[in-house]
Every structure is written in C-alpha cells, then in structure tokens.
Amino acid sequence: MTQAVDEINQVVQSVMEHETDGALVVRMWEGDVSALGSLYDRYGSLVYSIALKGLRRVSEAEDLTQEVFLKLMRTRSYNPRRGSLASYLTTLTRSRVIDRLRAQSTQQKYLSQWHQNQFSVDSATPMKHITQQERRALVREALTTLKAQQREVLELSYYEGQSQRDIAERLGVPLGTVKSWARRGLLQLRKQLDVLREDL
C-alpha cells in the first residue's frame, strides 16, 4: 500500500514538474496550494536573489520574497500573454525593492537629522549659540511628547541600530504596526522640535 502511494506521489510530482507556469498559476488561483509550492520551487531562488542583492539583509529579502508570492497568489495581476512568469516576478521584485529602499532612505534621513540636531534657523536666532548638549536636551524633551510606542520604536531604531523587523519581533507586534509608529513618531517629533525652536 505504501509503495503504491509513493508511486502515485512520484507520478503527480513528475506531472507538476512538466506543467507550464500558466497552468500552475491558474491552479494556484483556484486554491491549489501545491501549485503555489511548485511555483515557489521554480522561482523562489530567483526572487530571493534579486531581493537580497537590493536590500542586503537576509531577513528583509526573505520577507520580500514571501510578499511577492503572496501578491502573485492574491491579486491575479500576472498575464501570460504579456510575458513569462520569470520576467513578471523579476520586474515585480525589483519594483518592491525600490519601494523599500525609498522608504528606508526617507526614514534614515529624518533619523539622521534628529540625531545630529541640524535645525534650519536664521542667523539672527539664538539657536545657533546653544551647545550640543543643550540641543540633545531639546531632542529628549521633544521625545517625551510622543506616545510611548512611537518613542520606543525611534530609540530602538537609531540608538540600538535595530531593523523594523527586529523591533517588531522584540515588541511582539506586526511589522506594519512598527512602520506606522515610526512614521507617525517622526512626523510628530519634527513638529515638536519646530515648536521648541520657536520658543528660544
């Protein structure tokens, strides 16, 4: 009995290996999980290598690889008449890599400005005369106005150098939640620093 089952599995596996990408995609959209697995076996390494080359972090590349295949499964945006699946996945992955790098660049820019306390002020304002220690004190004061979650995410991200994924795991919350806290915290921090600057 066991031998018969093994033979059947081998036949199924052989058929799936020779099945076209288009046929596998259709079966995946119909809810066949094994079809998704076959597509991942075929193109998972391609997507991962592109993601890793662009993001240069294993955790980020793994996360993006999963995101790309989930999009393929959920959105039904792939059209075989417009090109091969390999080409579609390559384009999609590169696009998502660029999106993430842009988001990281924007956040890092704000974090760098916050850490260095580079305030844009007129030469007549007394702000230019305060010491670095006083500037740090202003930043600390501004941080106290943030919600606890926002403040913690910003401090872990910059002072401890943790990625947003690492922070999500540490705090036990979804990655999207951490990104939201960081974005809102940065915006609020900038506003508060502007207020403190005007008071000088």
What descriptors fit this protein?
single chain, 200 residues, mainly alpha, Arc Repressor Mutant, subunit A, 77% helix, Sigma-70 family RNA polymerase sigma factor, sigma factor activity, sigma factor, DNA binding, RNA_pol_sigma-70_dom
Could you explain how this protein is built, in words?
Helices cover 77% and strands 0% of the residues. The chain has 200 residues and is an all-alpha fold. The protein is built from nine helices and no strands. It is elongated. Helix 2 (21-29) crosses helix 3 (33-55) and helix 5 (85-116) packs parallel to helix 9 (175-198).
What is the CATH superfamily of the largest domain?
RNA polymerase sigma factor, region 2, helix turn helix motif
**CATH architecture group name of the largest domain:** Orthogonal Bundle
The biggest sheet amounts to: none
Mind telling me the CATH class of the largest domain?
Mainly Alpha
Q: Which radius of gyration do the C-alpha atoms yield? A: 24 Å
Strand/helix succession: HHHHHHHHH
Q: Say how many strands there are.
A: 0
Distance between the termini: 84 Å
- Count of helix runs: 9
- The dominant shape is elongated
Tally of domains = 2
Write down the CATH topology of the largest domain. Rna Polymerase Sigma Factor, Chain: A
Helix and strand arrangement:
Elements: H1 2-18, H2 21-29, H3 33-55, H4 58-75, H5 85-116, H6 132-143, H7 148-158, H8 164-171, H9 175-198
Helix pairs in contact: 2-3, 3-4, 3-5, 4-5, 5-9, 6-9, 7-9, 8-9
